[in-house]
């Protein structure tokens, strides 16, 4: 049976994942690696199913934490990006601070958040926010500040205000940049929330993994890792689809007839 | 007073920077078609910025329609070498963009949407883009995009159309087609045109008056009236009179480039 290239490209990610898992299984079994060091995928899956209830509970909590942090990051990031992208002075003033702040490993900041807000969900939300707002700012600002000067001249010569130009051209034009940043930001938000849960929480998938590893329950740790990975891929896909739907013009434009 | 008047106008972009144009005086009558030619970087585009009110002159005065230019006027339409259509809008929506900004269209566009849409469709039909209204810019060829761009520049019925090398990126045949399109638009419904170009044949074929500018700082060196009878057909470009005009302008440009 010959598969069409379309089915093939749809199946490819599943096949590769399956292949990697099979290799992993074979290596673990072939070298008899003990499960407290490196569990086989089948064992991880089995443990995952047995503890599906608690895992899902913690995962849901992490997902909510991540999404709240992400939502705040998108709102703040888009606003800040608009300000930075439309005003060269603010751009100059704010950039070093933004870059400096983004260079701080957020895990080093979690203890500070714990002192301020205590152990629990709030530091996780804030970490997710802090780690994921930067790409949104940079992308929205880039989209706005790379507006073609001729196009701006056309509009300004008609008497358009800066707000007109922002609404008619700047914002629609920066949408592809914005959506590209959402895909990066959502995966970063997971990193932030899980990291904070690992260090300072008593709920969430990060906490689950931490307590599992302290009792050497490696299959459960890996089950947690899998769940985070799957959630990340799912959220990424959601935003990728949204992007294609809303800013399809940006990718179709590349096949232009000239 | 003429429709557009420059009185000893100079402009430098930064305070101690070099002059972009220096001591330029010229008059353009209402309904006149003028063309500005010159070597690259001679400040041709600066002229457009001054007239449209995007830049105030450093020295001298610019008058449009009897008033000193103090800011964007709204009676101006512009098109550039790049069509600059918005890729998320259809051709029709692109053409209607100025109506969302310029009065009186802006405040009445909800109530009279159908009427304005009809205007835009008619304008598109005049440049040979009937049937392309709902296509997106990337579905149009380069020449068609440029036609749409000129439609957009004309939709709010500007009294002054400014074109900055609008046909520069097109192939020779498409370019000649668009010359004729522009000629017809201008003859059906007269407005004043300022065409900045590198192409001397284009300037002579379309314009009533051609100005030659010098290298930076830009000054006007030659003013040449093109007395070829109108309406002009493409065949006119093969006549001796036409060649003579082009030849004189070419020599003037040659002198500019040597200095």
Give a brief outline of the structure.
Chain A is mostly helical and 258 residues long. Helices cover 82% and strands 0% of the residues of chain A. Chain A has a single domain (40-246), classed as MetI-like (MetI-like fold, Orthogonal Bundle), CATH 1.10.3720.
Structure commentary:
With 258 residues, chain A is an all-alpha fold. Chain A has a single domain, classed as MetI-like (MetI-like fold). In chain A, helix 3 (52-86) crosses helix 9, helix 4 packs antiparallel against helix 6 and helix 9 packs antiparallel against helix 10. Helix content of chain A is 82%, strand content 0%. Chain A is flat, with a radius of gyration of 23 Å. In chain A, 37% of the residues are buried. Chain A has helices at residues 5-30, 41-50, 52-86, 88-103, 110-117, 121-145, 149-157, 162-200, 205-214, 218-246, 248-252. Chain B has a six-stranded mixed beta sheet, sandwiched between helices. In chain B, strands 2-1-4-5 form a four-stranded antiparallel beta sheet, with helices on one face. In chain B, a hairpin with a 6-residue loop joins strand 9 and strand 10. Chain B is of the alpha/beta class. The model of chain B has no long low-confidence stretch (mean pLDDT 87). Chain B has one domain (4-41, 55-200, 218-236): Rossmann fold, CATH 3.40.50. At the A-B interface, helix 7, helix 8 and helix 11 of A face strand 6 and helix 5 of B.
